[in-house]
Amino acid sequence: MAPRIVDASFLTSASKIGEAPAEGIGEVVFLGRSNVGKSSLLNSLTHRKNLAKSSSTPGKTRLINYFDVVYKEDETGEKYHLHFVDLPGFGYAKVSKSMKYEWQKSLNEFIRNRRTIRLFVHLRDARHPHEPIDDEVKAYIGKFIGPDQCYLEVFTKSDKLKQKEIGQILRERPGAILISNLKKRGIEKLERLVFDIVVKGIPCP
Predict the structure, then answer these.
(1) Is 60 exceeded by the pLDDT of residue 169?
(2) Of 1.10.357.10, 3.20.20.450, 3.20.20.190, 3.40.50.300, which CATH number belongs to 4-198?
(3) What's the whole-model pTM score?
């Protein structure tokens, strides 16, 4: 059997890089627009119903949330600890300009300077695959991503698409993964890919 997640728990919340856990364990950062389905994906990936809680108000959460995730290889019985990092959703925050600036500054500092980040998982709504703000985030990460880091595009809510629309996304972005939390489509593939990239060190797809 493929390596799988056997345990996951909330670790801590941080408002800035100085409050984050000590560096050492490989980190997987999940980022995306508010309402893209980030909390649902984290719950599906970790096989926990309420590990990540979604806010009823888009953009309300302004903390970096850390989760301790345990993978197990059935063949060897060996366990591996990773940190899943849930970044605040972007695009909807109803806050003052000064607060938004400070918040954005903290996030920028975090994703640029946190050297234990091994993988950026950028969630995009499959129904809106060409949102400018998503393209801007992709370009931004591309400017500083290190040789030991990976960037992965994951398109959520793929169950809302017709086969033709799915084919179009895959033609435009051959390395993209399409998932559906509702139908559990693509979840196992992503679970395995995260392990292979972060633990096994396979090249970015």
Answers:
(1) yes
(2) 3.40.50.300
(3) 0.90
